[in-house]
Design goal:
The complex is a heterodimer of chains A (about 550) and B (about 325).
Chain A: H1 11-34, E1 42-47, H2 62-68, E2 76-78, E3 86-88, E4 91-96, E5 102-107, H3 121-132, E6 149-156, E7 159-164, H4 171-175, H5 185-190, E8 205-211, E9 215-220, E10 234-239, H6 243-252, E11 257-258, H7 264-274, E12 278-293, H8 303-311, H9 315-325, H10 345-348, H11 358-371, E13 379-385, H12 388-403, E14 408-414, H13 416-425, E15 430-436, H14 442-445, H15 465-476, H16 480-498, E16 501-514, E17 517-518, E18 536-537
Helix pairs in contact in A: 8-11, 8-16, 15-16
Chain B: H1 2-29, H2 34-40, H3 48-57, H4 64-76, H5 90-125, H6 130-144, H7 147-162, H8 177-211, H9 214-221, H10 226-255, H11 258-264, H12 269-278, H13 282-310, H14 312-316
The chains are: A alpha+beta (about 550), B mainly alpha (about 325).
C-alpha cells in the first residue's frame, strides 16, 4: 500500500517547495508593504456642488458634508469596513437600559477641539440640545427624527445620558449620523448660529480656507485623538459643478476621487483611459427612483389602475438595460436590496410588479385596466425633473414599459422650481420622485409612505391610517424579528395591496478613483465615511 | 457737454430702479422657492416645521410689499443683503467671482482687439485679394463656432494629447501669476476668438466705407502719406461702430459666459447667475441682475465718452 504524503517530499522537491514558499512570502511582504499606510500628501477631490451654510445640523446636502466632515467628530459612527456596524467616535462605550429608555455614553478623555480646548460631555449635550430641542429661530433639519428623546443629560465630564419617552429601534443608528457634528458648548452658548459661517471641530483636519465656489482646504490636525491619524497632510475639495469637467479633472489627475460617483459609461471611459491607475469601487446605494401617483386624480384613485401601472414595469430586464448607461441597477422593495431590512428575492417577487414573468404581469395589467374602464391608448403625463442622470433615463424607461401595455404617456421634464412646486401642489398625474438617505433605517426610508398629511415628502396625496400605524409600530419594535415582520406587512400594503406609489429601481454607487487613494472604502451612502481619517496616498 | 453727461448719469438711477422692481416680481412669479429646492432637492425627509422655520429665517414669510421695500431700502444704503443660499454677504460672494469675470473679460477683449483691428484693416486695404479672403474665412469660422465648443476642443486636446488640464480652481493674479494665467488664457482665447470675429467684420466694413469718403480722397489728392491718412483720418472715423461692438461684447462677457465657465470650471459671475436662478436665491439673483444692468449702462456711458473723443461733432451737438 502506498503511503500518503505531502507534496513536499524528497530533497530536491523540498528545496523547490522552500523556494516557492520564499517567493510567496516575499510577494506577500511586498504586497503588505505596498498596503502599509504612508503619511503625507494632499488629497484633491472633486465636489459636484457648493456648500450652503457650514452647519451640519441645518444642511442636508453632500456638498456641505464632503468638505466639512473632516473637521468634525460625531458621537458614534458607522464602521466603513463593516457597515452597518456602529462604533464609537467620541464615545468610548455605551450601555442601554433594559427598558430601552436610557442610553448612557462614556466620552473618551483627552479629545481636543482645534482651538486646544477639551471636548467633554457638556459639548455633546449642547450639540444634541441644538439638534433635538432647537430654540425659536434656529433651524434643525433632523429634529423630527429625535421625537422619542425626552432629554439629554451630562452628569459628569465624561458621561452623556439620553432619556427617551418610548423605546426606539433606531436611536443608536441615528446617533451615528454623519450630520451630527459635535460643536463646542461655549460657542453655542454665545451664538447658536455661529457654526453656520465658522468651523471649530475636533476632527482629523483643521480648517484652512474656503474660497466660495472654488475650493475648500483642510490640514492635518496634529492633536487628533486617534494616534497616528490622519495620514494625509491635508486635503483640497475642488468644486466642479458640471459632470464633464469633473470627469476631465479625474482623468487629468487634478482630482483623485469624487466621492459621490459616476455612471457606468464614465467608469468605463476612465478605466479605458487610465488602465491600472484607476480602481473602481461599487455598492448599491440608499437612493431610489419612485413613481409618485396622484391618488386624488381619476382614474389613479382606482387601486386597479395603480396596480396595473406597477405590473407593467419589468424591473429585472430594466435593471439589465439601465445599468449599462445609468446608475440605476438593484431591484428592490421599500428597503435597499442587500440591507438587513430588505425583502428576500423570493418574497419580493410575490409583490405586484416585482415578478420575473413579464408576460403574465402584462396580461394582468391589461385585464386590470379593462376592468377599471381605462380605454386602450389612455393618455396621461409623467412629470420629471430635467436632470438627465438618472431622472430622464428612468422616465423614458417607465414610459416605454407603459406604452407596451397600450398606455399613451407624455414625458414632461421640468426645471427644479416648477417640478417641486407641482409635486407639492398635486399638479400632476404621475411623476418621477426620488429619495436618498445616509443609512439603511426603516424610520427613514418608510416615512415617504406615511400619509401625506404627516409626511411632507409623500407627494402621492393619500391618507392611510393602516400604513401610519404600521410605521409607528415598527419604529418602536425593539425585537428585530418583530420589526422585520411589520416592515414586510407595510411593504405589502404599499407596493401590492394599495400601490399608492412605487419604486422603480435603486441606485448603484460607482466610484472610480485613482488607485493611489488608499484607505477609503465605499459604503451604500455618499454621506458616510467622509472624515478622511484613514485615507492615505500611495507614491505615484 | 457737462450737462449732457450729468443727464446721462442721472438717467441711470430710474433705469436701475425699474430693473430692480421688475426682477423682484418676475422672480417671485416663477414657481418654487429656495427652501423647497434646498431640502426636497436632496430627497431626505425634513419636517414642515423645519421648512417653515427656514422660510422665516430667510424673510420669505413677510408680505411681498415689505420684502420689496426692505430690499430697495437696502440698495439705497448700498446694502445688498445676504445670499439666501449661503448666508454670506452678497457683495463678498460677487466680489470673489467678479475678479475672475473681469479679468477674463479684459483678457478676451485684448485678444479680440489685437486680432480684429489689424485683420479687419488689412482685409479692407487688400479688398478682394487672397489676404481678404483668408481674413474673411477666419472671421466667419469664428462666428460659426460657439466659444464653448472651441473651449471643449481645447480641453479635449489638452486631455488627450498632453494628459493635462488648466487648473480647475482660481488663483488671483497677484498670488501666483503663472497659475492664474495658465487657467485663464485658454478661455480668453476661446472667447476672444469669437469676439474678434464680430469685431473684424465690423472693422473691415467700417474701414472700407471710410476709405470711400470724400475727405480721404481729398487727403490723398493733397499728397498726404498713406499711413497718415489711414491712421489719423480713416481708422479714427471707422472706429465708432467697432467701439460699440467692443463695448457691448465686454458688458456681455461679465455675466454671459455661462457655458464657457462650466467647461473650464471657472468660478465666475455667469456660473453664479445660473446657480442663483436655479436655486431661487432671490437676493443673489436680484443683485446680479442689477450688477449686469449697471455694467451695460456704465459701458454705454463710457462709449458715449469715447464717441465724443473720436468724433468732435458729437461733443458740439
Amino acid at each position: 500500500m502506498k503511503k500518503r504524503g505531502t507534496a513536499c517530499q524528497g530533497r530536491s522537491v523540498m528545496l523547490l517547495c522552500a523556494g516557492v514558499l520564499g517567493l510567496v512570502l516575499l510577494a506577500a511582504t511586498a504586497a503588505r508593504a505596498a498596503e502599509t499606510p504612508k503619511a503625507g500628501g494632499t488629497l484633491n477631490f472633486a465636489v459636484g456642488e457648493t456648500p450652503p451654510s457650514y452647519d451640519g445640523h441645518r444642511e442636508t446636502t453632500f456638498a456641505m458634508l464632503h468638505p466639512l466632515a473632516p473637521h468634525y467628530s460625531t458621537l458614534l459612527r458607522f464602521d466603513p469596513e463593516n457597515y452597518p456596524k456602529i462604533e464609537g467616535d467620541v464615545a468610548e462605550s455605551w450601555t442601554v437600559s433594559k427598558d430601552g429608555l436610557t442610553y448612557t455614553f462614556k466620552i473618551r478623555k483627552g479629545i481636543k477641539f482645534h482651538d486646544g480646548s477639551l471636548l467633554t460631555a457638556t459639548d455633546v449635550k449642547a450639540t444634541y440640545d441644538k439638534i433635538v430641542f432647537p430654540p425659536e429661530g434656529v433651524a434643525s433639519a433632523r429634529k423630527a427624527y429625535y421625537a422619542m428623546v425626552e432629554k439629554v443629560e451630562a452628569p459628569d465630564a465624561s458621561t452623556v445620558v439620553f432619556r427617551l419617552k418610548r423605546p426606539s429601534a433606531s436611536l443608536l443608528a441615528q446617533l451615528a449620523s454623519p450630520w451630527n457634528f459635535i460643536y463646542k458648548a461655549d460657542i453655542l452658548a454665545k451664538d447658536l448660529r455661529w457654526y453656520e459661517k465658522n468651523v471649530m471641530g475636533s476632527g482629523p483636519f483643521t480648517f484652512v480656507e474656503y474660497v466660495p465656489g472654488s475650493h475648500w482646504d483642510g490640514k492635518k490636525n496634529p492633536d487628533y485623538f486617534r494616534k497616528g491619524r490622519p495620514y494625509l497632510d491635508g486635503y483640497r475639495a475642488i468644486f466642479i459643478r458640471d459632470t464633464a469637467p469633473r470627469v476631465a479633472a479625474i482623468r487629468a489627475g487634478q482630482a483623485l476621487i469624487e466621492f459621490r460617483g459616476f455612471n457606468p459609461v464614465v467608469r468605463d471611459d476612465l478605466v479605458r483611459a487610465l488602465g491600472d491607475k484607476i480602481r473602481v469601487q461599487e455598492s448599491s446605494w440608499i437612493c431610489n427612483m419612485t413613481v409618485a401617483i396622484n391618488n386624488e386624480k381619476k382614474p389613479f384613485d382606482d387601486v386597479r389602475v395603480r396596480k396595473a401601472l406597477t405590473l407593467a414595469i419589468d424591473r429585472w430586464e430594466g435593471s439589465k438595460a439601465l445599468s449599462q448607461i445609468s446608475i440605476m441597477k438593484p431591484v428592490g422593495g421599500l428597503m435597499r436590496p442587500g440591507s438587513e431590512f430588505a425583502a428576500p428575492e423570493a418574497e419580493l417577487a410575490k409583490l405586484a410588479g416585482f415578478g420575473k414573468d413579464a408576460e403574465t404581469s402584462r396580461r394582468e395589467t391589461k385585464r386590470l385596466l379593462k376592468e377599471a374602464g381605462v380605454p386602450e391608448g389612455f393618455a396621461f403625463t409623467l412629470k420629471n425633473r430635467n436632470i438627465k442622470e438618472p431622472y430622464e433615463a428612468v422616465g423614458v424607461f417607465v414610459i416605454d414599459q407603459w406604452r407596451q401595455v397600450g398606455l399613451n404617456v407624455t414625458h414632461q421634464p421640468q426645471e427644479g422650481g416648477p417640478y417641486f412646486a407641482d409635486l407639492r401642489a398635486g399638479n400632476y398625474e404621475t411623476s418621477i420622485d426620488f429619495a436618498c438617505d445616509f443609512m439603511d433605517e426603516p424610520d427613514y426610508q418608510l416615512i415617504k409612505f406615511v400619509s401625506s398629511d404627516k409626511s411632507p415628502i409623500n407627494y402621492a396625496r393619500y391618507v392611510d391610517p393602516v400604513v401610519d400605524d404600521l410605521y409607528e409600530k415598527q419604529g418602536r419594535a425593539t425585537d428585530p424579528k418583530e420589526r422585520l415582520k411589520l416592515i414586510r406587512q407595510l411593504e405589502k400594503r404599499i407596493l401590492d395591496e394599495q400601490v399608492y406609489q412605487f419604486h422603480v429601481l435603486w441606485w448603484q454607487r460607482i466610484v472610480p478613483h485613482w488607485a493611489r487613494v488608499k484607505g477609503w472604502k465605499i459604503t451604500p451612502s455618499h454621506y458616510l465615511n467622509q472624515d478622511l481619517r484613514d485615507v492615505w496616498l500611495a507614491p505615484e | 457737454m457737462q450737462r449732457f453727461f450729468l443727464r446721462r448719469f442721472l438717467l441711470m438711477i430710474p433705469t436701475l430702479l425699474g430693473v430692480a422692481v421688475l426682477v423682484f416680481f418676475l422672480l417671485r412669479v416663477a414657481p418654487g422657492d429656495i427652501v423647497e429646492l434646498k431640502y426636497a432637492g436632496v430627497g431626505a425627509f425634513v419636517s414642515q416645521e423645519a421648512l417653515d422655520m427656514e422660510r422665516a429665517q430667510l424673510g420669505l414669510d413677510k408680505p411681498l410689499w415689505k420684502q420689496l421695500i426692505d430690499w430697495i431700502w437696502g440698495i439705497v444704503r448700498l446694502d445688498f443683503g445676504t445670499s439666501m443660499w449661503t448666508g454670506r454677504p452678497i457683495t463678498y460672494e460677487i466680489a470673489i467671482r467678479l475678479q475672475l469675470s473681469l479679468q477674463l473679460a479684459i483678457m478676451a477683449t485684448i485678444v479680440a482687439v489685437l486680432l480684429s483691428i489689424p485683420l479687419g484693416t488689412i482685409a479692407a486695404l487688400r479688398q478682394d485679394t487672397w489676404v481678404d479672403y483668408v481674413v474673411r474665412v477666419f472671421s466667419i469660422a469664428g462666428l460659426a463656432m460657439p466659444s464653448f465648443w472651441l473651449a471643449i476642443l481645447i480641453i479635449l486636446g489638452f486631455l488627450i494629447f498632453f494628459r493635462w488640464l488648466p487648473p480647475m480652481f482660481f488663483t488671483p493674479i497677484w498670488v501666483d501669476p503663472w497659475a492664474n494665467l495658465s487657467q485663464l488664457i485658454w478661455p480668453a482665447l476661446a472667447v476672444g476668438y469669437r469676439y474678434s470675429a464680430v469685431a473684424t467684420r465690423m472693422t473691415r466694413s467700417a474701414v472700407l466705407e471710410v476709405l470711400r469718403e470724400d475727405y480721404i480722397r481729398t487727403a490723398r489728392a493733397k499728397g498726404l502719406w498713406e499711413k497718415l491718412i489711414l491712421g489719423r483720418h480713416a481708422l479714427k472715423n471707422a472706429m465708432l461702430p467697432v467701439v460699440t461692438i467692443i463695448g457691448l461684447e465686454f458688458a456681455f462677457l461679465i455675466g454671459g459666459l455661462v457655458v464657457t465657465e462650466q467647461v473650464f470650471n471657472l468660478n465666475g459671475i455667469g456660473m453664479l447667475f445660473v446657480e442663483a436662478v436655479t436655486r431661487r436665491d432671490y437676493t443673489m439673483t436680484q443683485a446680479l441682475v442689477l450688477l449686469v444692468s449697471f455694467t451695460f449702462i456704465l459701458v454705454n456711458f463710457v462709449m458715449d465718452l469715447v464717441y465724443a473723443w473720436l468724433d468732435p461733432r458729437i461733443r458740439y451737438q
